[in-house]
Amino acid sequence: MAHPLLLLITILFPFHTSAQNTAGNVTVGASLTATENSNPWRSPNGDFAFGFQQLQENNDLFVLSIWFDRIPDRTIVWFERRSNPVPRGSILRLDATDGLVLRDPQGRLLYNTDRLADEVAYGFLNNTGNFVLLRSDSTFLWESFNNPTDTILPTQTIEIGGTLISRKTPTNFSEGRFFASMNSNGNFVFSTKTVLSNVDFDDEYYNSQTSDQNASNSGYRVVFNERASISVVRRNGQQLILTPRSVPPISDFYYRATLDFDGVFVQYYHPRNSDGNSRWVSARSWPDNICAAIDGGRGSGACGYNNVCRLENNRPACQCPPGYSLADPNNAYGDCRPNFVQNCIQGSSQDDYELLEISDTDWPRNDYEQINPSTEEQCRSACLNDCFCAVAIFRSESCWKKKLPLSNGRVDTTLNSTAFLKFRRGDVPLVNPSRPSPDEPKQDRQTLIIVGSVLLGSSVFVNVLLICAGCLGFFLIYTKKLPVLNLVSRDGSGGNLRCFTYRELEQATNGFKEEVGRGAFGIVYKGEVQNGSKRIIAVKKLDRVAQDSEKEFRTEVNVIGQTHHKNLVPVVGFCDEGPHRLLVYEYMSNGALSGFLFNDTKPSWSQRTQIALGVARGLTYLHEECSTQIIHCDIKPQNILLDEYYNARISDFGLAKLLAMNQSNTNTNIRGTKGYVAPEWFRNSKITVKVDVYSFGVLLLEIVTCRKSLEDLEFDGENPILTDWVWDCFVEKRLDDLVENDFEALSDRRIMERFVMVGIWCIQEDASLRPTMKKVFQMLEGIVEVGVPPCPSPFTSTAA
């Protein structure tokens, strides 16, 4: 038995030393793979690890990072931002010439430590959490401490020009809104950035005040020393100590200082010997009140536009005012959208509007008119009679009128002010309508106690009878409904879709009475079913399904039923009864994007960008992430539905194949809608996911411009073909014409230009030039750089 064991040790030992030897050195050629079981490179004392950390919300995505390895939550202190996140199977390799080289599973370069002065001899993660690349004489060529992300550690410094950038959210490692840097004047400053007309404006909300007219007295470095003290060091040797004098000893606690996603810079500590219940505790945070500290004339403030900031435990808590809801339900710190349409309508009067009164809330940077002196009643009347007025603030016998979007919103109990929020009659919301009364939980508990007491106080015989009766009733109900709850799965044996009878759906839709949509695949009707509670559904009657393909129909329906994503319309069930083939979906209360986008009232720019990202996210899932790849074949505004929060949901996915089950990779029948159809449909070419990319590109340009892809012949404006007009504006540097009179889009010109360039890349006539939907999404998010696109139709007469 000794010989096989010796052989095993001989085989494994060289492999282990090629990655990381016992001294902690990482040799050239060593590599790490993005998987759950990847063994990271660790510091000699085991406190830190360098490698891939799996994202909790998506098990197929990983972050290249450095983290605390001895505490349960493995807190990340450095991460590679440009490539984040990377797909499963990506490989990091230590190369002598290029340093750290990260490639995706297809071998494409995602990141490398460029501009190295010499060849790398080895890498090393030291006991302070600093990963370094060294020359053969141990000279540092690169170190993570000199390339920080959002965190610094003891012994780390921030030199002049050094910057920390917050994450977008706690779990989204993309670049956020907040910056902390040591500037050339000698101050350690925190700021937000706003882009107007392609120019960056800083909105400073903290300043260490360490500059001096005498340069030798100015600050030049932020130091987080080995005793866990943070200070700004002046050139004359003096220090401005920022942290409290008394903090727990660093021998017993880990320390870090992080610019959190909400803009607060916090020094944290955590016990080294964690019992599993320990957590990071704040020792000090800056600024003291970020809600009041961010008070610039540009940008949204500590929270998003129309949002309101309230200070809780020195941290901002953001909440939409009554009548507003989050543009992105997953980001409570983002923009709030009004749940109503407010505009100037000829002939309207103050009788058409109402005001909702809230206290101690203000948006101090949105005034366009002040009335002084004013009474409270005069202030109310002035806002009601002004169609531009969205909110009026009454304080100290003065009235300030404000219009949307509102910025720098905050709660301040020292103001002694009253805010009047304006709504159309019938749209006035209840304040906190969903919040239960304080007595409700108590009443519920009392009810439960009474019921429990009665049951326990009854005789055993009565209780047995009740239990038997309940079981019998459940059995009868279950057996009666068994045919209705017949489900299908991949093998036809069971799954998660409800099989409805035709009669059920006929009753649910009141005889298919209320038509809510009509398209290439059939007519959609609104209905209502009971499933423990009332549920509104949309029933699509399919009119082009082959009738002799029951098995294939159920197989394809099951594939559709296996798709679950927040940007897809959820499928509830189906009907496959004789000649009747129907699909049942959740009802989307805000209808199709076409009605929202091409209306008289243009949706806000923030709403449009979120919708575009949502569609891109949903298509990425269909193409790359669901169990069976789905090509939609008919992406257009009519097939993008909006839920109650105006989240984009893709509908009709999977129907192209369902309604032509002999579909091959070669064109047989042109599918799609005029204006959105990719050129390869007309060429008998191979049909791939790139047809959806083309259609999405057209849709994206529609979302940017709020203009249809093909205008009517009577159109008297620019080129009636949207894609041609956008290209003309792009090459002639007239992008502002695309969003004329849209101040919000014009003030966000960098993102607007990025979206336009991505759209042009998507509509390239040569399908091989179009990016994948995953790359499209990353480009839209700003994770991947967008190059200048070529003319989309170089072989046609399109303007160039």
UniProtKB/TrEMBL annotation:
Reaction(s) the record says it catalyses: L-threonyl-[protein] + ATP = O-phospho-L-threonyl-[protein] + ADP + H(+); L-seryl-[protein] + ATP = O-phospho-L-seryl-[protein] + ADP + H(+)
Keyword Transmembrane assigned: yes
Major enzyme class: transferase
Record-listed E.C. numbers: 2.7.11.1
Keyword annotations: ATP-binding, Disulfide bond, EGF-like domain, Glycoprotein, Kinase, Membrane, Nucleotide-binding, Receptor, Serine/threonine-protein kinase, Signal, Transferase, Transmembrane, Transmembrane helix
Keyword ATP-binding: yes
Boundaries of every Bulb-type lectin domain copy: 17-146
Pfam families xref list: B_lectin, Pkinase
Record membrane topology: Single-pass membrane protein
Residues annotated as signal peptide: 1-19
Record-annotated Protein kinase domain positions: 510-796
Residues at which ATP binds: K541
Cell location: Membrane
Coiled coil: none
PROSITE patterns: BULB_LECTIN, PROTEIN_KINASE_ATP, PROTEIN_KINASE_DOM, PROTEIN_KINASE_ST
Homology family: Belongs to the protein kinase superfamily. Ser/Thr protein kinase family.
Protein name: Receptor-like serine/threonine-protein kinase
Origin species: Rehmannia glutinosa (Chinese foxglove)
